[in-house]
Amino acid sequence: MADARDSLTLRLIGAALGLAIVVATVLTGVVVYRAVYRHPRTDDAYVRANTIGIAPHVSGPIVALPIVDNQRVSQGEVLFRIDPRPYQAVLDQARAQLALTNLEIRGYEAAVAAAQANLAERQAEADYAGDYLRRVEPLLDGQFVTRDRVDEARAKARAARAAVDRAGSELRRAGDLLGQLGDVNARRQAAQAAVDDAELNVQYCSVRAPFDAYVTNLNIAVGQYASEGEEVFALVDNRQWYVMANFRESFLPHITPGMEVEVYLISYPARRFRGRVQGIGWALHQQNGATVGVLPAVDPTLNWVRLAQRFPVRIALEERDPAFPFRMGQTAVVTVRGAR
Questions:
Q1: Considering 58, 102, 153, 336, which has the largest number of Cβ atoms within 10 A of its Cβ?
Q2: In angstroms, rounded to a whole number, what is the distance separating the alpha carbons of residues 234 and 245?
Q3: What is the pTM of this model?
Q4: What is the CB neighbour count within 10 angstroms for residue 305?
Q5: What whole-number distance in Å separates Cα of residue 134 and Cα of residue 132?
Q6: Beta carbons within 10 angstroms of residue 25's beta carbon
Q7: Is 30 helix (H, G, I), strand (E, B) or coil?
């Protein structure tokens, strides 16, 4: 009887242990599902920042380089200077030409005024000749005047009208030479535009930081020739830092823009940073399916296991700590916590 009771007890204990294992397995699965899918996590993530190449707008030798590699610069700070003397000479010439243009304009304005006065004088003479002709023509029928006198009056009237036309042409020519279009004088505007362009080039000789940033890849020295439009070094934008996290495509339905994210950096394991999902990538580059000619090239798939693609998720970092500066390329571990 004792052996039977012991055997029954062992069976009950075994059944309880089996049930406990099943329950623990189910609970573990639930916890894992919640941890993995409710709060997606990846260590395939890196800190990023926007970078721009610094290129001068004008060409010339570098005469000043007050920065060093990896230096932090503020917006408006001078990065380097190009020899401004050739551009200053062009500016001085443009300013002198503007002064000459103003003198020429005053001369043309005087010519226009003279042409207007001449036109008014010729118009008065034409009016008088026309009026005189109208008075003497009726007297010809009564033979109060001779035909020669009438013909002479007609000739003077025609000459007066021709003089008016000639004076009008001279006035228009003087106006064209003046170059006045409404309230704008084209001559002065062209000369002023040349001055503005020369002043801008002189300003471009001092290349300044467009925003707060870090200097990187500075491999130049004073005396080097900088060409217009060619990048000299790069700046890392310090205004906005973010993390590019590559999540498996099976996690994407559980990630939406605006969700809070916890970010851990390998460089600072004891520090947690906050972020938010800014967006999810819409496309990946794939060799399979590329077009060759006019037909798609699709390679046969022979593997048994299909690996999930990873899509980049951009996470904006929302807090900064001067004691833990961000560096582009730092390895990160991110966990999506959910909606705000």
A1: 336
A2: 24
A3: 0.69
A4: 4
A5: 5
A6: 10
A7: helix
Level-2 CATH architecture, domain 39-50+236-338: Beta Barrel (2.40)
- Separation CA 133–CA 325 (nearest Å): 98
CATH fold of 56-82+205-230 = OB fold (Dihydrolipoamide Acetyltransferase, E2P) (2.40.50)
152-209 pLDDT tens trace: 777 887 888 888 888 788 878 877 777 776 777 888 889 999 999 999 999 999 999 9
The lowest-confidence range among 35-44, 78-87, 111-120 is 35-44
Which among 193, 197, 202 has a CA at the least distance from the CA of 85? 202
**Residue 336 burial (CB < 10 Å; 0-12/13-18/19+)?**
buried
Beta-carbon count within 10 A of 13 CB: 10
Report the distance separating Cα 59 and Cα 78, nearest Å: 17
| 233/80 Cα distance (integer angstroms) | 11
Number of Cβ atoms within 10 Å of the Cβ of 73: 19
